From TrEMBL:
<feature type="domain" description="Alanine racemase C-terminal">
    <location>
        <begin position="237"/>
        <end position="368"/>
    </location>
</feature>
<feature type="binding site">
    <location>
        <position position="137"/>
    </location>
    <ligand>
        <name>substrate</name>
    </ligand>
</feature>
<dbReference type="InterPro" id="IPR011079">
    <property type="entry name" value="Ala_racemase_C"/>
</dbReference>
<dbReference type="InterPro" id="IPR009006">
    <property type="entry name" value="Ala_racemase/Decarboxylase_C"/>
</dbReference>
<feature type="active site" description="Proton acceptor; specific for L-alanine">
    <location>
        <position position="258"/>
    </location>
</feature>
<keyword id="KW-0663">Pyridoxal phosphate</keyword>
<dbReference type="InterPro" id="IPR029066">
    <property type="entry name" value="PLP-binding_barrel"/>
</dbReference>
<dbReference type="GO" id="GO:0030170">
    <property type="term" value="F:pyridoxal phosphate binding"/>
</dbReference>
<protein>
    <recommendedName>
        <fullName>Alanine racemase</fullName>
        <ecNumber>5.1.1.1</ecNumber>
    </recommendedName>
</protein>
<dbReference type="InterPro" id="IPR001608">
    <property type="entry name" value="Ala_racemase_N"/>
</dbReference>
<dbReference type="InterPro" id="IPR000821">
    <property type="entry name" value="Ala_racemase"/>
</dbReference>
<comment type="function">
    <text>Catalyzes the interconversion of L-alanine and D-alanine. May also act on other amino acids.</text>
</comment>
<keyword id="KW-0413">Isomerase</keyword>
<feature type="active site" description="Proton acceptor; specific for D-alanine">
    <location>
        <position position="39"/>
    </location>
</feature>
<dbReference type="GO" id="GO:0005829">
    <property type="term" value="C:cytosol"/>
</dbReference>
<dbReference type="Pfam" id="PF00842">
    <property type="entry name" value="Ala_racemase_C"/>
</dbReference>
<feature type="binding site">
    <location>
        <position position="311"/>
    </location>
    <ligand>
        <name>substrate</name>
    </ligand>
</feature>
Length: 375
């Protein structure tokens, strides 16, 4: 692949594929509103560009983690409905109100601060309530549901939504899913008539029982695998290419990379690529004689990464390409349509989320999109 612009690694984000993924999930969740989770810079794809494409596809509700992310979406999309998953930061209520951001309230302290601000301004500013049904992360405890209901009843306040989060939705048969569903139902009994949301990407794909009035897909929008053990049906959104810096010959018995963890068992041809752990290519993707590492796509073939990945460079064994040798400046695919994000994540012992959200820094970003590029 010839790199089209810039001199370093190149990240291509297909906004058209992002929009198609949202539309596909919206069809599955028919009967529920389909939101879009765009936290962590829209999973590394660029929050303003991704949110704009998702809005063009039909998304109107967005979830971010922090107020700063919410402000970025608000700047791009003045009429979007934006929930802040980390909740109400202490002393920040005026900021949320100015930017029309809805905190996902998860503690009595948050609730009191938000309600006090509503009383002070004599207006019922919208929010969501988050109840913990089994993650021990953010959320009201289940035994606080009655207290919360009684507190808001005194002010005639109602949240826009009551929500929780699934811990094991990526394994649909896991008993935890049914347990959380039942516990969430018990919470909703305290808030009759209030819209509810439980399903992330995997929950959305698991079954309609988890859909309620709104679903909140994240990783599936960006082409990542949401459910373990199933073929991933989502379109590839992100493709990452890194440039070849040098092609070199190496001899049997020579070692490759830091720590001499890889010794060559044959005369070999190696390509040094300008992409390392500073670029999000995790050191866990290194290859040694004891353990294979990542593979990258070079001139129509998957080739192994050998030796320890350095900060700025990695080494690829291209011997099997024979005379079909890449030239310096040519791009190799780190992940994309030919080697998937999740295949790389599996090698590293992690998840696609981590590789996507590590996409910051030294890239030329290219956006393509068949009508989804902002004018």
């Amino acid at each position: 692949m010839k790199l089209t612009s810039g001199l370093g690694s190149q990240l291509t984000v297909d906004l058209g594929a992002l929009a198609r993924n949202w539309n596909a999930l919206d069809k599955v969740s028919q009967g529920a509103l389909t939101a879009a989770v765009v936290k962590a810079d829209a999973y590394g794809t660029g929050i303003e560009m991704a949110a704009t494409a998702l809005y063009a596809a039909g998304a109107r509700f967005f979830f971010v983690a922090t107020p700063d992310e919410g402000i970025a979406v608000r700047t791009a999309l003045p009429s979007a409905h934006i929930f802040v998953l980390n909740g109400l930061y202490p002393g920040a209520a005026n900021l949320y109100i100015r930017q029309n951001l809805m905190p996902v309230i998860s503690s009595m302290d948050m609730l009191e601060e938000w309600l006090n601000k509503c009383v002070e301004r004599n207006e019922a500013y919208p929010s969501a309530f988050h109840f913990d049904t089994g993650m021990n992360r953010l959320g009201f405890r289940l035994n606080e549901a009655v207290t919360v209901r009684e507190r808001i009843a005194r002010l005639s306040y109602a949240p826009q939504m009551v929500m929780s989060h699934l811990a094991c939705a990526d394994i649909p048969s896991h008993e935890k899913n049914r347990t959380q569903l039942a516990l969430f139902g018990s919470v909703l009994n305290q808030f009759p008539g209030i819209p509810a949301s439980l399903a992330n990407s995997a929950g959305l794909m698991t079954g309609r029982d988890y859909h309620f009035q709104m679903v909140r897909p994240g990783i599936a929008l960006y082409g990542g695998r949401a459910v373990v053990g199933r073929k991933n049906p989502m379109a590839t959104v992100v493709t990452l290419h890194a440039p070849v810096l040098q092609v070199r010959e190496a001899r049997t018995g020579e070692t490759v990379g830091y720590g001499a963890s890889y010794s060559l068992s044959r005369d070999s041809r190696l390509a040094v690529i300008g992409h390392g752990y500073a670029d999000g290519f995790l050191r866990a993707l290194s290859g040694s004689n004891a353990r294979p590492g990542a593979k990258v796509f070079v001139r129509g073939r998957l080739c192994p990464v050998i030796g320890k990945i350095s900060m700025d460079q990695s080494i690829v064994d291209i011997t099997e390409l024979g005379p079909n040798v890449p030239k310096p400046g040519e791009g190799v695919e780190i992940f994309g349509p030919n080697v998937s994000l999740d295949e790389q994540a599996d090698v590293a012992g992690t998840i696609g989320y981590e590789l996507l959200t590590a996409l910051k820094g030294r890239y030329t970003r290219n956006y393509v999109g068949n009508g989804y590029l902002p004018e």
